[in-house]
Amino acid sequence: MNIQIRFAILLLLLEFSTCEYWSRPMNVTTPADAGEVKLLVDPAGNSHIVWLDSAVVRYLLLDPQNRPLLGPVVLESAHPAEALDFVGDGTKLFVVFQAARGRLTQSCIYPLFAQGCRDIFFVESADGGKTWSQSTVVPRQNMSDIANRQYPSLLYIKEKDRLAIFYAKDKPTDGQGKDVYCVTRVSGSKVFRDEHVIQTSDAMIFVSPPHAGYTIAGNLATIHLHFSGVVDTGKNDMLGVRTYYYQSETATETWKSVGYLVEQFPKPWSAFQVRYSSGLWADPKAGLFLPESLQIGTTIVGTYLTTLKATGQPWSREKLFGVPMEILNMAMCSGASNKLLLLGKEARNQPTFVVYDTNTGYTSVEPDPLYRTETFRKASIGCYQAKEGGDIVVRIVGSAAVGRAEQYAIYVTNHTMSATSAETKADL
Q1: DSSP string of 14-41?
Q2: 182 phi and psi angles, rounded to 5 deg
Q3: What's the gap between Cα 124 and its chain centre?
């Protein structure tokens, strides 16, 4: 069997380092070139993992004890993938990824050079990852449109069986600005509706690509969308970061702006000060959560959490904790909406686990759950409860170096915590 596809499962050692609440990470793939990784933990506690191995998109399914059930499976190898997103409910699984249609050295604007474009591709499974569709390009409203499309993100509304794909697309004139688009698919359909422009922006570079979450009140689902980008303010020697917030009710599929914020900084923008977000979490009981990092030049100097409570209180922003870091992603178990779980990366490239209590504002921080401070690349977090009101099992998957070799594999580690308090427990 090809060594790049074969995976070697190591025995889980029930021993712990100074971070006593995390199980020792297991290597669950053959060492190769693992990079960006996404995790989905289904209601049964199984881990669905999608990651980039060089430019190949792979999928792996593990049981609650991190033992292999299926895979690794190659989802895409024909197009060199660069970025991806992954959502689902454990049975229905959806993956989007950004990839080149041809040579990246060529322009995307003119028909003569169309093969050089980056585009958004889609693949799905309807049986929990056992079988997967062929990858297809996310449809365009006008197939003669060859503008570059990037920064894909997914939203799946399980209660409505509704899927939305968000992305940025170059303006058709010169490619310098980017507009934000989405395509949607309704329950029972395999056909995407025509792409719809949400915002015609003047962003030259996206600081925070589109991120979406949803809330449900009665029979109405509302999608919440956030993105921000560097813009020219029109003033001499001044640039800015414009942060947009949009909402859409799924019954009408019309988008409305709920405001934006512009923060200015002087040119050149290599020394700017800006807040940027790497995600958005929406919970019907707790509200909306938008973690933000304050960056000056290339250094992150603070981490904040902007919230919109479900009670309808106005947006509020608070400093999250003392250690500045980039938030990689978030999770919240359905039976514990008072606990927002965040996974971050601080200045020393160290993965860090954070628990934020949405009721009290209490924050606890645990460093380096992957035990891979110097060789950590990317990571993703998920959680589940075996029974309602029971303990929360938190799971992190991450790509990290294997030994001293220049090879990277996917590691998995578990952590158990109480659903009702700040108590944590060793994984026994």
Answers
A1: ----SSTTBPPPEE-S-SBBEEEEEEEE
A2: -145, 155
A3: 17
The amino acid sitting at 369 is P
Q: What is the pLDDT of residues 22-67, one digit of tens each?
A: 888 888 988 888 888 999 999 899 999 999 988 899 999 999 999 9
Q: Say if CB 325 and CB 344 are below 8 A apart.
A: yes
Which of these, 35, 9, 66, 62, lies nearest to 415 by C-alpha position? 66
What 8-state DSSP symbol labels residue 192?
Answer: P
175: region left, alpha or beta (phi > 0 left; psi from -120 to 50 alpha): left
CA distance 209 to 201: 12
Token pair belonging to 368 = 């380096």
Apex CA 305: angle with CA 308 and CA 334, to 5°?
65
Please give the model's pTM, rounded to 2 decimal places: 0.84
pLDDT digits (tens, 9 = 90+) for 254-313: 888 776 665 655 555 555 566 667 778 887 677 788 888 777 767 787 788 877 765 555
Nearest to 280 by CA among 271, 292, 272, 295: 292
Q: Cα–Cα distance between 51 and 86 in angstroms, integer?
A: 9
Tokens of 394: 């938190």
Q: For residues 87 and 96, what is the distance between their CA atoms, to the nearest angstrom?
A: 9
Q: What is the mean pLDDT of residues 96-118?
A: 58
